[in-house]
Specification:
Blueprint (H helix, E strand, L loop, with lengths): L5 H7 L7 H16 L14 E5 L3 E7 L8 E6 L2 E7 L22 E7 L10 E5 L2 E7 L14 H4 L10
Antiparallel strand pairs: 1-2, 2-7, 3-4, 4-5, 6-7
């Protein structure tokens, strides 16, 4: 097998997980790769896929929640986790007695997805929007965790050499 193929690289570069969290992530990645878009959790429920990104000022979580209305979805924050929940109201199907279903996959009736955030956020300024089946949550970072550039004092700026042992 050509060592540059993705399958060869993934097998060759795999190392055993060193913690339970790493093992859980390995199993989740395996299940996701095998099942594609219909990613179930271990209870068999379907959960929305999410993208988590970060800038200097905010964290953004984007989730696919097709078919859900704004009033059927909730967004909560707890212990540095974003918790997404969706619940469709029960809808009777027309003449189910005369129909024999072989498979029902089209619609999630409910979901809960918890996402660990990469840093603390300002929970008073969170914004969420649901449009065309895509839920976007923008979470501003707390001021005390935002990245800041620290000025460096040295011989060029003060005319004297700074003692490395001096506290600013």
């Amino acid at each position: 097998m050509n060592p540059s193929t993705p399958k060869e690289r993934s097998i060759k570069n795999w190392l055993p997980p060193t913690s339970f969290g790493a093992l859980r992530q390995e199993v989740n990645d395996l299940v996701e790769n095998l099942l594609g878009d219909s990613m179930p959790n271990f209870r068999g429920d379907q959960v929305p896929r999410v993208d988590v990104s970060e800038t200097a000022d905010f964290v953004e979580v984007v989730a696919d929640v097709p078919g859900f209305k704004t009033e059927e979805v909730s967004v909560d924050l707890a212990d540095n986790h974003l918790i997404l929940t969706g619940q469709h109201p029960e809808q009777p199907t027309a003449s189910t007695e005369a129909r024999r279903f072989h498979r029902i996959e089209r619609r999630m009736s409910s979901f809960t997805r918890s996402v660990l955030l990469p840093c603390p956020v300002d929970d008073t300024r969170v914004e969420a929007e649901l449009k065309d089946g895509i839920l976007s949550v923008r979470l501003p970072k707390r001021e005390d965790v935002r990245r800041r550039r620290v000025p460096i004092r040295g011989a060029e700026s003060t005319g004297t050499v700074t003692d490395p042992g001096v506290n600013f």
